[in-house]
Amino acid sequence: MEKLIDKMMVADFTTYSRSDLSRTFEDDNQVLEKDRLQSLVFGLLRQRKLDFLDIYSEEMMQAAKGIVRQCVIKSVSQIEDIDTDTVVKLQDQMRLMTFAQWFELLKNVFEYFLLFLTRIKATLGVIRNVVLEILDSSQRNRAADACALADGGSAENEDEEEDEESGLRPGEAELAFLTHEGLFISDALNEAERRSNGASTQTRTQAKEEASGSDSASGTTESSSSREHITNTTSSLTTGGAAALEDLMPSDLELGRIANNIQELLYTASDISHDRCVKVLLAKAKDGSLERLSSAEFVCVSRAVEAFAKDTEALCSRRSVSLRGALQSQANRFVHRFHEERKTKLSLLLDTERWKQAEVPAEFQHLVDSIADGHITLPERKPAGPEEKKPSDFLLVDGQKYAVVGTVLLLIRMFLEYCQCVNDIPSITTDMLTRLSDLLK
Length: 441
Fold this sequence. Notes:
441 residues, mainly alpha, coiled coil
């Protein structure tokens, strides 16, 4: 019967976990059936099924895979150019997307995983509260038992001391009342107490005249008897109701371990989410698509990835590295292609250079002025207007005139493009600086 109950509770928790993690993201992020979850967790702990978090972890991994599939299917359904009957694999479908379509898919995946992690954190918070409440209750019960034990021992000691100090032994009061001939009961009791005190005084006088060893031995015997009584009382109280309850529930050490595992499970959820996003990134990068992006497009991807990484870090208190690592790998490839393109372009310009003084358009003069002011910004190209300044014969740098050739002007623009990339993607600074130095040689 016990095994059947265990199986039923595990099956119920599995069903709950699957339902909670597979909900559509159009629903709210509230905990699904909170009362039911609390009852399930309490029951599993009472049955000592301490591995129930492994069940939730497995369901969490399956749900994460489903998120990517759900996003891809939704995006592909809106693109007429992709025939899902011919192109079956999700990776192949993503490669057929344009950058704009794929980037929109990537942002949707990031958004869904943030909602996914928010739900997981809320559910794990409820589980953690149940565990901590049981732990707190267990500690309070033990403290109450300890207080009850201490109070019981003190009360028994006080009763014994009162019996020893009292002048009347049990039965003396009744005997005095029956044999007294006066009108008042108090007279009978007072008379009996005087007789008892007199007898006690005589007994103490005789005891002083006897050997002192006899008194010491009797005191030792009485003290030993008292300690034995307290020990027996302690044993009987310890085996009370609190102990019976603790036998059913996990120990404090086990409960503390479960609480730590809950936090680790949230870390795992963050890592799983990043790993699934890496799949989306690498699916597009497999045919070199990300390497062929323009610097502006790659910057968009980089910023989206960094924003997602920061959001998950704030939500889960976990710095997951797989997605950032995958982006860094793609950034290195992007830098290599970026540098090779400009190196080839500069080589062609030098081969065709006539080495004659060239006119300096206002755009290039503005670029040099921006560099001198410490602002590394590429201006947008604008069509020539009627009020545009005429080209100058010289390039002005700090008031000095320089005659330049056409290659120098284009080299200035390339220099700013390198600086702009570093500004947009700080992680490639060292690599880009090395390649810029190679370009200027």
